[in-house]
From TrEMBL:
Identification of the protein by name: Peptidoglycan DD-metalloendopeptidase family protein
UniProtKB keywords: Coiled coil, Signal
Biased composition (Low complexity): 264-300
SUPFAM superfamilies: Duplicated hybrid motif, Myosin rod fragments
Single GO molecular function: metalloendopeptidase activity
């Protein structure tokens, strides 16, 4: 499982003499003040955690508003890209039309050129025929052959008209050609500017797309940061829950201790010779252990589940494994308390799944054991359990791949990332 690293104050471990039988208490006042001191430390840890949770909340809010900003910038870029793409399509269409126009003009110019050429050929042929016939002789013949002055004028005019008409047509053709060439130049200039615009627009679109990609990258990173912050917060909330359960357990211990002291005081009154007796134990004997449960060891601790060790304590693929994994297939694989103690957490956690925390007092030393990924828990907070008593059924809940028990051992109370290697303490 993944956990963010947040340092929390290390609480001094104080044995809970009242919960566990056979532990002598130094003095009555000391035992309660010790518990109260421990309660204060847990309260400090809780308020620190709550402050961390608040700042994680602030961070999440900031990340969310940053994401909203980036999203609106991305939207703006999307609009800009759309607009530029429209312009690109428009310019591309215009270029296509302009090219068609150029082609049309070129065709028209070609026609005019051909006409000019034909007219030139015609004029040359006519000029040659004049020369062959002695220059303007034929014209003169035409004119001289006139029958009257009026006829002469008509004929002379007719000749002049023919010559003038040839020249006019030629000039008109040349003028048309000039105009068409000018038009072609204008259209080609227009085409060049359109092509330049298209290149600029395409560059702009590329830049906008690159900016959009940057925004997407930024958004993904912000999203990831937010997810991490969420994960960290869940983690802290879970730790806060465990500390709250610890505090509740201490309150119960203080209450038990007060009751015990009251009983002792009453006993001392009625029988002054007896004093300083040990605390009582209300633990019920173990029951409902399935036939497949491991044999209960004779020492202080016993194996918490049957099955094979699939992972030990220590480094594991770049991360640290804070416990032992014991796996066994089957619908009803029992998980038992590793030692006598008091259940103070029995809940569902997103990482540990159904999990039970038990506090033990072994010859004056406090230990905590944790049993994670249970299919279901059979004990609630406040329950007193005996070594080897079934507390749950092996499962695959929370962040678990395959049915197994993830078992952790702590010297003293549970502390974040403070689990110790159970080898040599718990028979595994
Ligand atoms: Zn594990």
């Amino acid at each position: 499982m993944k956990k963010s690293v947040i340092t929390i104050a290390v609480a001094t471990t104080v044995g809970l003499g009242t919960i566990f039988g056979g532990v002598t208490v130094k003095t009555e006042a000391e035992s309660i003040s010790g518990l109260k001191g421990e309660q204060t430390k847990i309260q400090d840890q809780r308020s620190n955690l709550k402050a961390d949770i608040n700042s994680a909340n602030d961070k999440i809010n900031t990340l969310q508003s940053q994401q909203a900003d980036v999203k609106s910038e991305k939207k703006r870029l999307d609009f800009a890209i759309d607009a530029t793409t429209d312009k690109i399509n428009d310019k591309t269409e215009k270029i296509k039309n302009t090219k068609a126009e150029v082609a049309k003009l070129q065709a028209e110019i070609k026609v005019i050129k051909e006409r000019i050429q034909k007219r030139n050929v015609l004029l040359k042929e006519r000029a040659r025929s004049y020369q062959e016939n002695g220059g303007m002789v034929s014209y003169l013949d035409v004119i001289m052959g006139s029958t009257s002055f009026n006829d002469f004028i008509d004929r002379a005019n007719a000749v002049a008209t023919i010559v003038q008409a040839d020249q006019d047509i030629l000039e008109q053709h040349e003028a048309d050609k000039k105009e068409l060439l000018e038009k072609q130049t204008r259209v080609e200039t227009n085409l060049a500017s359109l092509q330049k615009m298209l290149v600029d627009l395409k560059n702009m679109n590329q830049q906008l797309s690159a900016q959009k990609k940057e925004k997407e990258k930024l958004l993904a990173s912000l999203k990831e940061q937010e997810e991490e912050a969420h994960e960290g917060m869940l983690d802290m909330q879970e730790r806060e829950q465990i500390l709250a359960a610890q505090e509740a357990a201490i309150k119960r211990s203080i209450q038990n201790e007060r009751e015990r002291q009251a009983r002792e005081a009453a006993q001392a009154k009625s029988n002054p010779s007896k004093s300083g007796s040990s605390g009582s134990s209300s633990a019920s004997s173990g029951s409902s252990v399935s036939s497949s449960a491991p044999k209960v060891s004779s020492g202080s601790f016993t194996r918490p589940a049957p099955g094979v060790i699939t992972s030990g304590f220590g480094g594991r693929g770049g991360s640290f494994h804070y416990g032992f994994d014991i796996a066994k297939p089957g619908d009803n694989v029992p998980i038992v308390a590793a030692a006598d103690g008091e259940v103070y957490v029995s809940h569902y956690s997103s990482s540990y799944g159904n999990v039970v925390y038990i506090l033990h007092n072994i010859n004056g030393q406090t230990y905590t054991t944790v049993y994670a990924h249970m299919r279901r828990s059979l004990v609630g907070a406040g329950a007193t359990v005996k070594k080897g008593q079934q507390i749950g059924v092996m499962g695959n809940t929370g962040e678990s791949r395959g049915q197994h028990l993830h078992f952790e051992l702590y010297k003293g109370r549970w502390q974040y990332h403070a689990a110790i290697n159970p080898s040599g303490i718990v028979p595994l």
